[in-house]
From TrEMBL:
UniProt keyword Transmembrane present: yes
Protein name listed in UniProt: Cell division protein FtsQ
The entry's keywords: Cell cycle, Cell division, Cell inner membrane, Cell membrane, Membrane, Transmembrane, Transmembrane helix
Source organism phylogeny: Bacteria, Pseudomonadati, Pseudomonadota, Gammaproteobacteria, Alteromonadales
Subunit structure: Part of a complex composed of FtsB, FtsL and FtsQ.
Length: 254
């Protein structure tokens, strides 16, 4: 094929091209490129902590045990991000790791704030000496705070914490109706119950029928209180009757 024939062939092929379609595709590619570049620049801008910093964190909710300093320390590294790149889930997790925080919720507040609602732990009892029990019967660890020394002492396996709290409330109510206060309640590994009253009397309740045994103690206590020696311990782990230990004498009555 001669040179002239080749040129004629290419002119024919070019003439057959749909230039309207080609120009349309070229324009589309240009638009896509422009949008991609804009999206990339916007992404960089939204992630720029200097351009769009978090200006403040608004803390709501009643707080007794969690200080502003503790919150600031927990969020220090997370606040170095921009308003849009900050992960509110990470902020929530960081706050909930504070020992006295029970629950936290976090949301963005335009234009440059985070709004946080904190719910603190509500301790209702000491648990196994160095831990706490909240109102839901959940065990948690937290440093001691002033003003909560008068809580009852509860003890038992952690998996049984909710049951111990429920039993404490039931026993306390029955005792209070009859003029007694409940200082502590414990459940040992063999699932046997022991209670200590505000007056120092220890009640051995065993594994079963603890409410009936408490009532038996209530019924007989007026007689025991008339004795010359102070009651120290009452063993109610009998089907009928009880055993009494006295403070000032090595004698028992049954």
């Amino acid at each position: 094929m001669s040179w002239k024939d080749k040129m004629r062939h290419w002119r024919q092929r070019l003439a057959a091209v749909d230039w309207y379609l080609v120009s349309g595709l070229a324009f589309l590619l240009l638009v896509i490129s422009a949008f991609s570049l804009s999206a990339l620049r916007l992404h960089d801008l939204l992630g720029d902590a200097e351009a769009l910093p978090i200006e403040s964190v608004i803390i709501k909710g009643d707080r007794q045990y969690t200080s502003d300093a503790e919150i600031q320390a927990a969020l220090q590294s997370l606040m170095r991000r921009s308003f849009f790149s900050a992960d509110v889930n990470q902020v929530q997790e960081a706050l909930e790791e504070l020992p006295w925080v029970y629950q936290a919720s976090v949301r963005r507040k335009w234009p440059a704030r985070l709004k946080v609602f904190l719910q603190e732990q509500q301790p209702v009892a000491h648990w196994n000496g160095d831990k706490w029990l909240n109102e839901h019967g959940q065990v948690f660890e937290a440093p001691h705070k002033e003003g909560i020394d008068q809580l009852p002492q509860l003890a038992g396996p952690d998996a049984m914490a909710k049951d111990v709290l429920t039993s404490y409330r039931q026993i306390r109510e029955l005792l209070q109706i009859n003029g007694f206060g409940l200082k502590s309640l414990s459940l040992n590994a063999r699932h046997a119950w022991r209670a200590v009253l505000d007056n120092g009397v220890m009640l051995e309740l065993g594994r079963e029928d603890k409410m009936a045994r408490i009532q038996r103690f209530i019924n007989v206590y007026p007689v025991l209180a008339k004795q010359p020696n102070k009651v120290a311990r009452v063993d109610l782990r009998y089907d009928t009757g009880l055993a009494v230990g006295w403070d000032d004498a090595q004698q028992e009555s049954r």
